[in-house]
Structures are given as structure tokens and as C-alpha cells.
Design brief:
This is Thioredoxin-like fold domain-containing protein. The termini are far apart. The chain has helices at 9-14, 42-59, 63-78, and strands spanning 23-26, 32-36. It is built from 3 helices and 2 strands, in the order αββαα. The chain has one domain. The chain has a two-stranded antiparallel ribbon with strand order 1-2. Helix 2 runs antiparallel to helix 3. By secondary structure, the protein is mainly alpha-helical. 1% of the residues are buried.
């Protein structure tokens, strides 16, 4: 969702946000799992979203998702980088 806090100042108070932009990841029940209160360039934004998903899965004790996200992150981090590529057994 996107709000203009100048036009709707009550929204800023409702989310306990003292700074814009504020990005919040919540689950359907409204529990917050991740928050960023600053501008993120595209590279950092894309990098932090998987962390938000991982934090949400940990908070929900959804260890199957945690495992899948961890493997996905490791694959992305090591793929194509010979110094980080796992050695073949």
C-alpha cells in the first residue's frame, strides 16, 4: 500500500513511522516481520526483500520455507563466483 502522509498524517501514527519512506512487511494477521525506514536503491531493496521473507518464515516457525529460502539465497550468492562456488565432492 502507498500513503501520502502529508495528506493522511494519521496513517504515519498508525504504523508508528517517524520517517518516510517506511517499508513494512506484515503477515495477513497484521504482525510486522520487517521494517525499513529509509530510501533503498533498487539493488538494496531487491536484496532486503528475501531477508524480510526469511524473517517472516522464522517468526511463523515455518521451517520448510526457511530451508527453501536459505538454499535459494546460497545458490544466488555462490552461482558463477568461483571463489564462493562450493567444491565438487
Amino acid at each position: 500500500m502507498r500513503f501520502n502522509t502529508l495528506e493522511e498524517p494519521e496513517v504515519e501514527a498508525g504504523f508508528d513511522s517517524g520517517w518516510t519512506p517506511t517499508l513494512i512487511v506484515e503477515d495477513p494477521e497484521g504482525r510486522e516481520h520487517w521494517r525499513s525506514q529509509s530510501y533503498l536503491d533498487v539493488r538494496r531493496f531487491v536484496g532486503e526483500l528475501p531477508l524480510a521473507r526469511l524473517k517472516g518464515a522464522i517468526d511463523r516457525h515455518d521451517y520448510e520455507t526457511v530451508s527453501g529460502l536459505a538454499e535459494e539465497a546460497l545458490g544466488r550468492r555462490t552461482a558463477g563466483d568461483p571463489e564462493r562456488e562450493p567444491e565438487a565432492l
